[in-house]
């Protein structure tokens, strides 16, 4: 079932069913104009918010270059998009690897001819109160949440700047391009036990605001979405026992069930958001609907 609206001459279709479980065939009828012909890089796109964003972008006509440190979920995401008639490739890898930014940027240019959108979404948490936090924890989280977005943007800078200069010379104006950095309410407000994560997510807000000023001349809009609690494996009950491995470290992920039960009622909407709801905010910043919006931080936190 679909609901369709028209806004500023742009047709948008909202699908009731979730793309992951009920992938509607992408046809000329329902491929949307919002991102038609655009190429988007999305990191951390094998699961959660990243995957929902990749699928929503594909539904709206984008060609997606998605990445994840775990190649299997990344390939599964590509498979779902392609099976539904979309266009996507996977470039698996660790965003903190110094060689990775050039790898994914070059893949996007070689496969699809350019870059229009970058979504810096990859990340994880490694919590501890400050007197117990190690240098390894501090540096690892800043590397993935702040240094990696900086490096990816820097790697794309030659293409983005030169394309804008060429378009301005030939057409009088550069096409709008988008960078969407993902932050958190931990970055906008702070969160106990997350000195590293809060600092990294606050830092990417500073990077966003700086770059909006630096690249406004190139018609590149740079914005940030700061999420509250969204249903992902990073916000599930820690008692489930799920872990991730980074280097030699085995890191328990999730939030203690007692804290989940205590804090969920504090959310005015009474629940966590879904990855699909989170992806909608990212789509706004990636689309022509935000062509005169730059340097902004949008909190998506259910009313908090």
How is this structure best described in words?
- Helices cover 39% and strands 18% of the residues.
- The protein is an alpha/beta fold and 304 residues long.
- It has one domain (25-300): Rossmann fold, CATH 3.40.50.720.
- The strands form 3 sheets. Strands 5-4-3-6-7-8-11 form a 7-stranded parallel sheet, sandwiched between helices. The chain has a two-stranded antiparallel ribbon with strand order 1-2. The chain has a two-stranded antiparallel sheet with strand order 9-10.
- Helix 3 packs parallel to helix 4 (135-171).
- The longest helix is centred in the middle third of the chain and has 37 residues, at 135-171.
- The radius of gyration is 19 Å and the shape is globular.
Nutshell version of this structure?
With 304 residues, this protein is an alpha/beta fold. It contains eight helices and eleven strands.
Structural topology:
Elements: E1 2-7, E2 10-15, E3 39-42, H1 48-59, E4 63-66, H2 71-83, E5 87-90, H3 100-112, E6 117-120, H4 135-171, E7 177-184, H5 185-189, H6 195-215, E8 220-227, E9 243-246, E10 249-252, H7 257-263, H8 275-286, E11 297-300
Parallel strand pairs: 3-4, 3-6, 4-5, 6-7, 7-8, 8-11
Antiparallel strand pairs: 1-2, 9-10
Number of helices: 8
Q: How many separate structural domains?
A: 1
CATH topology: Rossmann fold
Low-pLDDT stretches are 1-32
In which range does the helix fraction lie?
25-40%
User: What is the terminal-to-terminal distance?
Assistant: 31 Å
Number of strands: 11
For the biggest β-sheet, the strand order reads 5-4-3-6-7-8-11
Within CATH, the superfamily carries the name NAD(P)-binding Rossmann-like Domain
SSE arrangement, N to C: EEEHEHEHEHEHHEEEHHE
Percent strand:
15-25%
Mean pLDDT: 91
Structural class: alpha/beta
CATH architecture descriptor name:
3-Layer(aba) Sandwich
What kind of sheet is the major sheet?
Answer: 7 strands, parallel
CATH class membership: Alpha Beta
The coarse overall form would be: globular
Tell me the radius of gyration: 19 Å
């Amino acid at each position: 079932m679909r609901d369709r609206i028209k806004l500023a001459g742009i047709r948008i279709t909202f699908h009731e069913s979730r793309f992951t479980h009920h992938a509607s065939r992408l046809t000329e009828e329902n491929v949307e104009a919002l991102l038609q012909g655009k190429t988007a890089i999305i990191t951390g796109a094998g699961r959660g918010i990243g995957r929902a964003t990749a699928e929503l972008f594909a539904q709206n006509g984008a060609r997606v270059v998605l990445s994840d440190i775990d190649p299997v979920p990344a390939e599964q995401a590509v498979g779902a998009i392609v099976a539904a008639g979309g266009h996507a490739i996977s470039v698996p890898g660790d965003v903190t690897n110094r060689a990775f930014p050039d790898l994914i940027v070059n893949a996007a240019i070689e496969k699809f001819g350019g870059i229009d959108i970058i979504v810096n979404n990859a990340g994880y948490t490694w919590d501890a109160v400050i007197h117990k936090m190690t240098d390894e924890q501090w540096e690892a989280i800043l590397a993935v949440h702040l240094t990696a977005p900086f490096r990816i943007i820097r790697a794309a800078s030659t293409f983005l700047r030169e394309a804008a200069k060429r378009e301005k010379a030939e057409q009088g104006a550069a096409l709008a391009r988008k960078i969407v950095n993902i932050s958190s309410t931990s970055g906008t407000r702070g969160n106990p036990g997350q000195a590293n994560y809060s600092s990294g997510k606050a830092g990417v807000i500073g990077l966003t605001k700086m770059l909006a000023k630096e690249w406004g001349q190139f018609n590149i809009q740079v914005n940030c979405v700061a999420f509250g609690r969204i249903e992902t494996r990073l916000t599930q009950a820690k008692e489930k026992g799920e872990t991730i491995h980074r280097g030699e470290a085995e890191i328990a992920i999730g939030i203690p069930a007692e804290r989940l039960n205590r804090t969920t009622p504090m959310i005015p909407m009474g629940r966590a958001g879904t990855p699909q709801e989170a992806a909608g905010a990212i789509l706004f910043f990636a689309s022509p609907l935000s062509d005169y919006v730059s340097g902004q931080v949008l909190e998506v936190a259910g009313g908090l």
